[in-house]
Amino acid sequence: MENIWLKAAAMKDKMIATRRDLHKHPESAWIEFRTASIVAERLTKLGYEVLCGADVIDEATMMGVPTTEVLMQAQQRALSEGADPAWVDKMNGGKTGVVGIMHFAKPGKVVALRFDMDSNEVAETTEAEHQPCKEGFRSLHDGLMHACGHDGHVTVGLAVAELIAAHQDEMSGTIKLIFQPGEEGVRGAKAMVATGVVDDVDYFLSGHIGFNANRDGMFACMTGGFLATTKLDAYFTGQSSHAGAAPQEGRNALLAAAAASIALHSISRHGKGASRINVGVLEAGTGRNILPDRAVVKLETRGADTEINEFMMSEAKRMIKATADLYNVEVKMEEVGGAPSCALDEVMGQEIFELVKSSKQFSEVVPQVHLGASEDCSYFMQRVQEKGGQAVYMMYGSALKAGHHNSSFDFNEDCLPKSAAMLTILAKHFGEK
Amino acid sequence: MENIWLKAAAMKDKMIATRRDLHKHPESAWIEFRTASIVAERLTKLGYEVLCGADVIDEATMMGVPTTEVLMQAQQRALSEGADPAWVDKMNGGKTGVVGIMHFAKPGKVVALRFDMDSNEVAETTEAEHQPCKEGFRSLHDGLMHACGHDGHVTVGLAVAELIAAHQDEMSGTIKLIFQPGEEGVRGAKAMVATGVVDDVDYFLSGHIGFNANRDGMFACMTGGFLATTKLDAYFTGQSSHAGAAPQEGRNALLAAAAASIALHSISRHGKGASRINVGVLEAGTGRNILPDRAVVKLETRGADTEINEFMMSEAKRMIKATADLYNVEVKMEEVGGAPSCALDEVMGQEIFELVKSSKQFSEVVPQVHLGASEDCSYFMQRVQEKGGQAVYMMYGSALKAGHHNSSFDFNEDCLPKSAAMLTILAKHFGEK
Amino acid sequence: MENIWLKAAAMKDKMIATRRDLHKHPESAWIEFRTASIVAERLTKLGYEVLCGADVIDEATMMGVPTTEVLMQAQQRALSEGADPAWVDKMNGGKTGVVGIMHFAKPGKVVALRFDMDSNEVAETTEAEHQPCKEGFRSLHDGLMHACGHDGHVTVGLAVAELIAAHQDEMSGTIKLIFQPGEEGVRGAKAMVATGVVDDVDYFLSGHIGFNANRDGMFACMTGGFLATTKLDAYFTGQSSHAGAAPQEGRNALLAAAAASIALHSISRHGKGASRINVGVLEAGTGRNILPDRAVVKLETRGADTEINEFMMSEAKRMIKATADLYNVEVKMEEVGGAPSCALDEVMGQEIFELVKSSKQFSEVVPQVHLGASEDCSYFMQRVQEKGGQAVYMMYGSALKAGHHNSSFDFNEDCLPKSAAMLTILAKHFGEK
Amino acid sequence: MENIWLKAAAMKDKMIATRRDLHKHPESAWIEFRTASIVAERLTKLGYEVLCGADVIDEATMMGVPTTEVLMQAQQRALSEGADPAWVDKMNGGKTGVVGIMHFAKPGKVVALRFDMDSNEVAETTEAEHQPCKEGFRSLHDGLMHACGHDGHVTVGLAVAELIAAHQDEMSGTIKLIFQPGEEGVRGAKAMVATGVVDDVDYFLSGHIGFNANRDGMFACMTGGFLATTKLDAYFTGQSSHAGAAPQEGRNALLAAAAASIALHSISRHGKGASRINVGVLEAGTGRNILPDRAVVKLETRGADTEINEFMMSEAKRMIKATADLYNVEVKMEEVGGAPSCALDEVMGQEIFELVKSSKQFSEVVPQVHLGASEDCSYFMQRVQEKGGQAVYMMYGSALKAGHHNSSFDFNEDCLPKSAAMLTILAKHFGEK
């Protein structure tokens, strides 16, 4: 495996082609039918045992799933764009997760690598100097864009799959390549974890392209500071009435939603650490002279740890219920996303640091960075740790053209082969333990 | 009875003495021990059957009763100021209502006259030009003052009692003289009505000195526009905590009370008529750095009619409960006063108009005025009407020195004998029907 | 003119054809290009002097005008549906008011009749039993529908124009037929009044089909209880920021709009009469994890009279400004509609009552009804009264299939010829005074 | 100075007597006339140059000063309890700070020790087992109590003064003993600092008895985590009106205060560190049926550092102003207390740690503890650091009977001589540098 860096470098053009094809066909949370079909197809061809659909996605714990209509249209589009109907069929209802498993002859540990596949709901810029515009791989899907680099993640995952398959005789233990839907909005990990997909994992690795800085060629070995978070929608239903003639006959959903929004922002600070609350969207009412009978509020809470986030969400739910009572309206709440906080495994991280450093392939090797945001990879990591394994989240530095989720986001594709090679080496290393 | 006007005029000095004695010894709601004892004593001496205490006050429906400590102190004061212990004893617990009944030889109707006895909780002015200061009958009781003329009402009631007793051979039917405690805060009428005191009444009369204008010598024969009202106290109890170290451990009663106050003022207008809401008092918290665990809110609702007021109060109670839930605190509510709206009996009012007019004793006789406020006399009137009787509320014009409830309030005592004579004539008239 | 009833009856089929054509091509406020062109064309052919565009609409006082884009598209549609380009041109910018004037040989008074032309922004039902569906005149314009009978009003106005023209020798004085745009949202009358169009009017008449009841064949001679009203939009602009990483850098437009909504509903009741406030629409924010930088609030105030409505609006504007300050955001307010209250002219109304009654054409003649809503006809009426004229608003009873503004609204077309005849007779009568 | 520990131990009875005398005569912020007079008197007798009154208190920056009436009464009481009129005179207006200065023959640094003198506004328990009750030194002043150990601080300060004076030949440089009024409510330090009293100080030391734990015999050498804080009162003034008859004429101070309270708790969290807001007191309104024209809100903000606290206070002030505008009332704000955060001087702290440890007098020596609260000693420390000096805040462990500010608070007097000796040694050490 000494020449793994050369092999990966030789795959660069193929990786760029894969990445640009994915970029051109972005699919957001739970509708990654085309992306997941490509993944499943390639893994199969490489000799992996491939699981998808209900085998790796627990329907009951899927969060923030689009309507059936949206799912159906997305399936149609995927098919029209060349997705294999057999795979799409298995992913019915949005169960677009894929897991590729390979057991090696040499005994060893179970190592999992996790890659997220979904795009953002962002309309890609049309500016001429934007690389995807210049090179002809701008998103073909209105309102969807890979603005967070998940196209790169999938590309790296497929390259790792190929490198490992090529070197399977030298590998030990078992490798699990996990392709997750719906990381945006922290919606997908929980449903994969619920099927037990990482319950046997000894070492878990994931990471992100260019997350924390525009430091091209940097590699960060551990990422801390995952905020626990919950995403909640609240739908208020009252009774409309004519605002001039009979206001007393109405039950005002707009005022309930407004009172909820203000009350939510008055949730007490927590003495044990940082907390956050944001009502990001409020929509209520239909006409100026109609007492409003419908309102929706979309919010999120965060906490420095899961306990603090649970305090915030518990307060939030009680308050939303109470403001509904305040204006005598009904309310229905739905958790549409969420992620816990998670701990760092410093021993594993330190080993990674030594391996990355000794590779001499990165211009800068950082032991640890702070995220200060939420990533539902924490669901996987927490479960692996609960079961006695170790888990680490890394960062692959890449010069970014614009911040994540920005319509001009783009990264330097040079990071793709390097990341693939490094992950392959790490997978081999931890399998041998 | 032609010389009733002369007789009343001859009683003027005595009436002024009575009024000034009462003015000097004001007693607020449910503590009219001295006042009521004087009334009971005089009625007894004049030959009336006298009921008081539990006979005319239903304990279960008394509203806004002071604490036992306050009642005890007031009883002591009344005794020290000459009240008869036998009467005071019967009025134990604040049951300070008195009813004097006289049946006449000639058959006829049951006529009731009602007079309210309580003072305001107002500190009387010390200005030299204020008549009570000048003439030495300023209130001896700190923070209490007859600033609404009820001292005059009691005086008129006692004079009527005397005039009727003197003319009892000429009267027909039955007369009931009702002396009510706690009209301020609309607290006392409900508990008298609940004992059935007006259930047999055919004609009911009450009224007020100088209520609606400073028109000396005016007499208004009917008063409409009684607003229904409810007075409510809400006590919030949460959990204190250190605002710096552990705000998340508190349950904030101050915020609950603040949210309640704002929400209450957002109760919908009513399409069928006027409504009112007022949170008049909010007190919360003990120290700046302590998360507040106690709050009280004192409010009132009003409505053009009882239905509208009930809409307001039903909304108010639900909202108060909901704001307690909003901040996870407990709340206890207490109705401390209230009055319904009531209808006018125009036929009876028209007869009064003719009689007053033909007396030629008043400079101005007005058929009807509008109150636009609340008076719990409406409890009596509503009951009389329910039972098939008729009821009217009048106004006895008198030049006022300042508005009702003002610390400089005073009226022209000339109105006292005139009102007494006119009421006597009306009582005779309706008894004969 | 005795046979005016017969003539009108003979015009029934033509009137129905006109009404159904208008119903099929509804145009909402300020985009009545096709409707107004038809009106202008017909009045011209009948010999009226016809004014439109800037001559009868003051651009500076137009309220709630759609965007230029919407206006342009509506003009295109009108042209494609046969509107005369010459008329459409004159109405550029939405100045779709039309006035037809005819001076008669016989001297007399100036009489104005006013008809409103705009449709609602309501999607018409597709139910088979709905008459327009059954008879093939359902709205061709998505989201627009004549659900308030203005198609009938225009039809009556054109029939009156024809009847008067036919009888011009028998008429006295001057007739002004005023066709107003934008009554819905009370947007159009102010801009017509501002051009002085009724400054010389002695008698002003307007009315509504089936407004107050489903009483087929009823005619109500006077309508009172016009509530003064103002329609206001408030646009809040703050600063977005990431809700997790840097909430302190944001300025929260959503919270400003929520606080405004609640505060607005806490505006004090008014002691002198009914008031109303309704925040009918609130829309704020774009994404759950973004501190919201944009919000809009759409509201209306009403008052039993103009003074009370002005109190409400003055409170509302101060509160909106203050809640913007509260959350450190900017706010822009726009009045998009409004109407004053107005007085009834009972003398004129009484004359109408006699004339309608003596016609023996109506199953029920009602002297006066109460609107309890807003109609910007009050702008015309108020101005006529200020200038010394008299003004009356009537109701033409018609069996309704559903309430006004309902997607199943429909009226009995029998009322059309009757109303036209009656208005013609009234116009003649008041011209002769 | 080797026998300093013995000397201090020998002074124990005297120190206990002093402490109990002070405990018996507690004086809260700005009224420490008796306490400060005793301090000034003793320092003078010991040979210190003594400054007090306007020399050490800048009137313009005094915060939270009681009314003149309260100050006058307190002065009278102090005099009646034996305070020297000459000293009390100099402290007129509440300028009760005292500074004792002694220059030593040997050259060296300027060392300052700071002691706070004021009591709490707490009514001391009457429980028999409470030491001050048992031993007869319970507070003689109703509602005032040394419940935070400042009686101990003053006692230690006076003992240090005596020990240093006794050893002045062995000392180097200059010693400044600073006795500060008004630490409770963080009111007094700012006004002392403003007179320049620590501008020449090289080493500054202060500390607290038993602050962080009940660890008898513990000594903590550095205290970090001082929260910056501001204490603010806001007085709202509106216009009362009768809530039934003319609510529209009022301007509602209660609703302004309620809206302010809720808005204040919705101030955004800060991404850079902990923040706090607490509205601890809200009082508004006088009567249920009167629209409230007066309200007061008492609040505090805190921040992990001064910048965050300033963000909080700047938001708070804008919000209070805006809620006043919201309900059209006036508002007056007054800062009645405050303290910045401050940095730790670890080099100085480490030296202290070595000295304390080597003394072998304490059962436990802790390098650093975390306060997580506010102390206006930070004003002194910040200024010393700005001028190039170093500053440290320590903790003197003592078994507490109840928490600080509790009515049963009491400490173990054993800590007094030990603390005095240790401070004397530290003063000598830093003077010699």
UniProtKB/TrEMBL annotation, chains A, B, C, D:
UniProt KW keywords: Manganese, Metal-binding
Biological source species: Candidatus Avacidaminococcus intestinavium
Location of the Peptidase M20 dimerisation domain: 236-324
Cofactor(s) required for function per UniProt: Mn(2+)
Protein name as catalogued: Amidohydrolase
Annotated TM spans: none
GO cellular component annotations of the record: cytoplasm
Keyword flag Chaperone: no
Ligand binding (Mn(2+)): C148, H150, E184, H208, H405
Signal peptide: none
UniProt-recorded Gene Ontology molecular function terms: dipeptidase activity; metal ion binding; para-aminobenzoyl-glutamate hydrolase activity
